[in-house]
User: What shape does this take?
Amino acid sequence: MNPVRKQRLLITLGALAGLALATGLLLYAISANINLFYTPQQVAEGEAPVGQRMRVGGLVVEGSVRRDQETLENAFDLTDGLGTFTVYYVGILPDLFREGQGIVANGTLISESRFDATEVLAKHDEQYMPPEVLEALQRAGHPSVDGSVYEAEEGVSY
Assistant: This one.
């Protein structure tokens, strides 16, 4: 093979290998940062992957909030009427957080009954509920959710 052609072939193969490596690293980074939304029913039924970062949303079960004032550890049950699991969070909960209210939590599913949250987001007024939570609760036929009462506001993101 001609030395010039051999050099061009090596350069082309090197460029292709570099492009393949960059694409692989990009896809790995994207997959590691995806936060899919799951409902309490999906988590309780085992549809949500254990050990993966995700978002979960539902209503905080009345009487389930447990707080440790010394360590800032919080635990509460989250439900959509069809499934329930426990969310654990270390830190100060949002001011608008309370029982019976819709929330969205970001974190990692440890088991089908335990979710370790890194962030807890509460609705910002009496009439708003995150669209994902509203849809999940309506599908579950939750009695306290009326689609006409909770209207998702446009442009509000969690």
The CA atoms of residues 89 and 117 lie 5 Å apart.
